[in-house]
Specification:
Blueprint: H1 2-17, H2 24-44, E1 54-61, E2 68-69, H3 71-83, E3 86-101, E4 104-117, E5 120-134, E6 140-149
Parallel strand pairs: 1-6
Antiparallel strand pairs: 1-2, 3-4, 4-5, 5-6
Length: 155
């Protein structure tokens, strides 16, 4: 009897430590919702509308800029970009891969955008990777992100 109880406890402990199955469809829904809101907020000039999708300890690594640590730093960066006079006229995000395991997931994708910076019209395209982390409340939040342009910088 003691051996059976001990064996059952070991099996339960191993099951509880096993990686949780990732519901990729549900995660893809969250990512699509985020990308849709991000597109809308960029076109409307409300760059910080997506901040609720970020974990408090998120890290953002924007192209040609410093690493931003924490939700507040990301919020400030977004607010400054919104005030900078950049006007986005077209934005498209395309997720090409979503995967992960347990409480961590990733999204790999590409972007295309057009913007006006003063009188200049600028087209850009590039790639990005976003790491998502499942929170204690079951929601998915951006934990880390990086993006960079595929357009060669003028020399």
């Amino acid at each position: 009897m003691v051996k059976s109880l001990f064996a059952l406890l070991i099996v339960l402990a191993l099951i509880s430590c096993a990686p949780q199955e990732l519901d990729t469809a549900a995660l893809k829904g969250v990512i699509d919702e985020y990308n849709s809101l991000l597109t809308k907020s960029m076109l409307e000039g409300n760059m910080s509308a997506t901040i609720s999708y970020y974990a408090d300890d998120a890290v953002s690594m924007p192209s040609s800029g410093p690493m931003l640590k924490g939700k507040e730093a990301i919020q400030n960066y977004s607010d400054e970009m919104g005030k900078s006079g950049v006007k986005f006229t077209a934005v498209k995000f395309t997720s090409s891969e979503v995967g992960g395991s347990g409480n961590l997931a990733y999204e790999i994708g590409t972007y295309e955008m057009s913007m006006e910076i003063g009188p200049a019209k600028v087209d850009d395209n590039g790639k990005y990777m976003t790491l998502w982390k499942k929170q204690a409340d079951g929601s998915w939040k951006v934990f880390s992100e990086i993006w960079n342009s595929s357009v060669e910088a003028p020399h």
